[in-house]
Amino acid sequence: MNFFTEIGQYFLFLRLTFRKPQKWSVFWRILLLEMYQIGIGSLAVVALIATFMGAVTTIQTANQLLTPSDMFPTQLIPKFVVGTVVSTSSILELAPTITCLVLAGKIGANIASEIGNKKISEQIDAYEVMGINSASFVALPKIVAGLIMIPSLIIVANFLLMYGGVLATKFTSALTYDDLILGARLVFHPEYVRIMMIKGFIFAFLITSLSAFQGYYTEGGALEVGEAGTRAVTRICVFILFFDLIIAQIFLGL
Amino acid sequence: MIEVIGLNKSFNDRQILFDIHAQFVSGKPNLVIGASGSGKSVLFKCLVGLLIPESGQILYENHDFLSMPYDDKLKLRKQIGMLFQNNALFDSLTVEENVEFPLKMFSSMSAQERKHRVNECLSMVNLVNSNHKFPAEISGGMKKRVGIARAIALNGKYLFCDEPNSGLDPLTSRVIDDLISQLTADLHMTTVVNSHDMKTVKDIGEHIIFIYQGKKWWEGSKSEIDEARLSNPELNAFFQASF
Fold first, then answer.
1. Residue B105 and residue A130: Cβ atoms within 8 Å?
2. What is the pLDDT of residues B219-232, one digit of tens each?
3. Contact: A123, B88; criterion CB under 8 Å
């Protein structure tokens, strides 16, 4: 299948998926389950990565900006600048993009292999024979759950990135808690949070819809299910980075 | 009655079904037989709407399934139950939940009524005390029974069974064949069974359609098959190879 055929098939899949659920009570139950699996199921990994990433970013930024050099004598750069760099990069890049790249591996592969497995074991055909819109039944709850839970995880990740930075100040004498928070407050702009949430929703949609698409069109056996998972993760990562660039250019490009 | 008129189906440049004309008799087990790769599974999938043929008609009680509006198609599909070759049981649901699934989706029954109907269907297929087991925890024969129970849960008019004996030992195969035959008679369903097992033909086949190299080669009743073999070398070869 060439690139343009696949793009066309993806949009046809979305058209099939975004239909009114055949039974709302069943849809709500599946949605809650998916929200739990995507949100609560990914909380630990997101928390761990965000905390460590926040700490590492703080230490490395402090090292680069506060280490004396011929070109930039230390005294010219106030220590709170580290806080401005850490908080801005957390809100704009680390929380939405890195978190979603991690979630692409966890949630994306999971969704693709789950739906792919349903496809090769004829469960998707069973839905169709019963008169159920199988694309909507298997993919819509996952996409909606992703759109609710992934931006929520990004918000949590953002707080934990700063918390990681705060933890790092305990282990270094180069920077204090007050310097970090002062810097973060000085450059805080609500527009940045809006951009973070826009990224969050777009990336959430990409993660869930692309992985569901790859799973839904799986043909073959166990090997192909594995390949669908890998293909889903690869494409999600590429599209996340591509849309990251587009959003940055639209909202922050000079 | 289900009637197939001039059905053609191909994949890319390879034609699989050639101008199939056939009738499936109401209220009886109809068997589609043929060697592996003869096109019977493709015909079967066209009948239930999983594949769209290039041309032809599939008439359910004189209404063309292929050209009917989407809503009518959905209504008709609720009349169709299907037992899949690999059972296609929902692996995250228990036996009880699998049978209850179509009732939850398409009926307005209360939870109590659904439970009653589930137990009724499971007892019809002689499967008791397995309600809370998952598909992975039951045997192949039991999975077939659950598949049949799910297929009849909505009390539909048509039952399709794709290779109901695949992967089963001869004794269990016989039991499943008898079950399909009995349910067809008791529930007055039109049953279509896709099989390459001549034992099934002998046991339950009331009306038989033999597919050979994508073409309908022979159609008739069980009593006619022995006579037909004499003048039909392909049917005879298939019959002989099965024993």
1. yes
2. 888 888 888 888 88
3. yes
Q: What is the pLDDT of residues A201-215, one digit of tens each?
A: 999 999 999 999 999
Task: Tell me if A121 and B48 make a contact (CB, 8 A cut-off).
Answer: no
Separation between Cα atoms, residue A173 and residue B201, nearest integer Å: 85
Mean pLDDT of chain B: 89
Six token digits for residue A34: 């998916």
Which amino acid, residue B136?
A: A
User: What is the structure's pLDDT at B243?
Assistant: 64
Report CB contact under 8 Å: B91, A123: yes
d(CA A168, CA A174): 10
pTM: 0.89
Among A22, A122, A128, the residue with its CB nearest the CB of B105 is: A22
Q: Show contacts of A132-136: CB within 8 Å, 24+ apart.
A: A132/A22, A132/B105, A133/A16, A133/A19, A133/A22, A134/A216, A135/A13, A135/A16, A135/A17, A135/A216, A136/A16, A136/A17, A136/A18, A136/A19, A136/A21, A136/A22
Closest CB to B86: pick one of A22, A122, A129. A122
Residues of A within 8 A of B75 (CB-CB) are 131
Q: How far is CA B242 from CA A156, B43, B228, in A?
A: 65, 21, 16
The tokens for A184 are: 């973060």
- Does the beta carbon of A122 lie under 8 angstroms from any beta carbon of chain B? yes
